[in-house]
Queue: 3 jobs
Job 1
Amino acid sequence: MQKRIILGTRGSALALAQVRLVEQALRAAIEGIEIEVKKITTTGDRRQDPNFQVDTPAGLKGLFTKEIQDAILSGEINAAVHSLKDVPGVTPDELTIAAVLERALASDVLIAKTARTFDDLPRGAGVGTSSVRRSRLLRWRRGDLRVEPLRGNVPTRLQKLRATENLDAIVLACAGLERLGYQMIDGSMDFDGAALRTQILPEMPHAIGQGAIALECRADDGDTRTLFGKINHAPTFTCIRAERELLRLLNGDCTLPVGVRTQLLGGKIFLEAIVFGDEGAEPREARNEGEADEPEALAQRLFRQLYS
């Protein structure tokens, strides 16, 4: 079996924490494996302007993945470690998501200066997010909120919450906070000595792939795919197959305002989705279930429900 692999990743603290989890899994599964990690700067890392626009038909598609995918195709690296929620629905035909680690909690979390819950936010409160999905969901649930554009890594966003007067709260992914070592205990967390309020939002549909770490390689790289098969978490892989098939059918990328919830129970998979269209229009919602060994078929039925 292949005993050496080069993994490509972004250089953020979260990306490196995720690579460490992959390294731990590989070393536990394959004795004596040699692992090299190569940091790659993406367009999304270089451009932190919240109003940044990409002048292509695909918009922001691939903002945090393209340069890493190019490195796989050129042979510079064997595989990429991604936050799956950053991977567009349509990727180069030559590449494949070969494996995922066990999914962390997929929910979002509200982090506030003083409000204990989402409903406690005062009218006109400023909530920061860079996600179109979160922005639309927040305004749909509470039309009296002010949603402010906010980019940067997790510590940067937490610092901006503390330092920015017109920000009352931000929304982040639970998984990212946990992987960076932030602890949410009894509705609060410490950041640089300051106590911030936290509320996990399980009722808020999460991004497609959120909480999952994906391993991408060349589709024809049998050695790497075999290696990744040793650490693939099959239940998570089943769920993300359904989610990503829905994303593909929606012709979406990581900026599409779609939220999902997926659950695997016994031999059944349950999928629900909410998709936002034009501003002011009611979102489309649907729920369905199917056999766990046919996740793509479930996604196709759900898509037809959404657009019947």
Job 2
Amino acid sequence: MPEPRLIVITRPDAAALAAEAAAGLLQPAAAVSPKFLYDALGSRLFDAITELDEYYPTRTEATIFAAHGAAIADAVLAATGPGPVLVDLGAGDGAKAARLFPRLAPRRYVAVDISAGYLRAALQRLAREHPGIEMLGVALDFAAGLQLPEGVVDGPALVFYPGSSIGNFAPEAARTLLADMRRASRGGAVLLGVDLVKPAPRLQVAYDDALGVTAAFNLNVLRRLNALLGADFQPRQWRHVALVDAAAARVEMHLQAREPLVVRWPGHERAFAAGERIHTENAHKWTLPGFAALLAEAGCEQMRHWTDAAGDFALFVAR
């Protein structure tokens, strides 16, 4: 069994992350990047969110793959040819991509994620389970630009971005990422999960569940900021807020101060009035024509899509 390879492009830089977080907190309208939600505990809490009754995207995407997997694979292979390179963005443990292995028979699996340690463990497990596939990891913060090292993709590839993660990007940034994905595919295909526009009550409960798991996930960012900055956030002074902006077709996650307070960290402090918020994440939703138009603007063509019976979620393949 060949040993998996790991190429580290982005190395965690605590000072740079702290500076980025501090700059966000000191804006007139405080905000932090959603990447700060995903430390080790945050990632486990998000895994728990995907098991909730209210959170439909993960299981709905799985039902679409189960119902239409053969047609999706045919559309991909028509663009890539047999034995493609499979590039998995935000790979995590690689489980979603691994479900494609039997139908696509990729010759190389390229897992792209910001965490080198997480990638290493995932690739070693996948290499044991799929010894016929070359395993390669690229530790990269692709939100800042998807530029893969030379030779990683040596022919038409499938670039895979499941789970509606494209929704974390505002439309202009999403268009830029899609164009990067198109270039990375080298004439192959992209395959994306896309959460679709739906009534506000469905979205509200999906991002503010009855058990409070999403609230814990969001509040955990305060713990992360305390560790990064040496700050003194007290999570009990804050509450999770999920807002549906129907006009902008997105859900916004915020942390809202329950009372007037001051947060301090070395060299800085920030006062928050009662009710003032820190914006932590957006989740943009799309219509089928709207996302097809975005793909076209990014230079993709020959789009196909599949949805669940209720029209909650879609999988798009584009050349």
Job 3
Amino acid sequence: MAFEHRVKLFISENNRAVVAALLLCGVLCLLAAGYVFSTPTTQTVVEQTDRQTFDAEVHPSALVTRPTALYEQGERLENRSVYFLSASPSLTLQANTSVPDDEPVAVDTQLQLETLGTRNGQPFYRSTRTLIETEQTASDGRVSATETVNVSAVRQELAVVQEEVQDTGQFRLRLLLDVAYRSEAYEGSLSASAPFVVSDQSYYLDGTLEATETESTPVERQITQPPSPAEYGGLAVIGLLLFGLAAATVRIDDRVDTEELRTQIVHDQHAEWISRGQFPTDSQKQYISILTLEDLVDVAIDTNRRVIHDPQIDAYAVIDSTEIYYYALADVQADEWLDI
């Protein structure tokens, strides 16, 4: 309650300033609500236009040239996880590139077989053999180039260089794909690589050889957004609430007794020194009027006595051996109590 009393006292003592501030803030909120309502916001957004996608991949396949228990002669094996030298000693690699089909696109394709020698993870030898190297123009959205690799010969070459270094290092094979494209709007490149594993009996691509790229052109555009009802409505409600608070503040000032509020605040601050009770008059004692309750509490503290509060007449008193120090808001009631 102490806080409430302090607020009421502050409003009562500064009534005009508080009412003026509330009215001013209310007017500003209503003006802000009108401004938000009449002023739509403009936002800049970036849109990606003229999207074009470019894809490149290598499609492996092998023709069975020798009949085995697994395959029939003449069978075409495509995208297998492993191929066997006994059945298919050669591997066909088809490089396919897909581009937009609504315009001519220049496509340069290069596929290489890399031999890399390493020791302790560090390279000491590198050579490349170009398998496919073409310059084409795609008019229907697709270009292709094909090359067949004699894997048996590659294995023999690998065995020769491995024998040369013995256990000093290891050799690995890798396929490298590089595709450059040029359209009317875009120019770029696609790259991919995959290990090419060859053993005494089999070979395979350890992964896929494919890459994709999507090109687009960013375009800025202005978007006008209507005002948000939550924004201007909230400001208007706050403004009306402030007007209502201003009216309530005026009414509070009409009903508030500042001296009573100050007394109540002191009562709350020194409640540990104040006890409720009734005290009779005593004509043999001297009655001393104290101007404020706070001063009366000081008297109680100095005399090491308590303040007695009689709520029926709203009076406070400190009773000493020969004096009664008292404080009362209503002088008439105090006079009746003292019988004077």
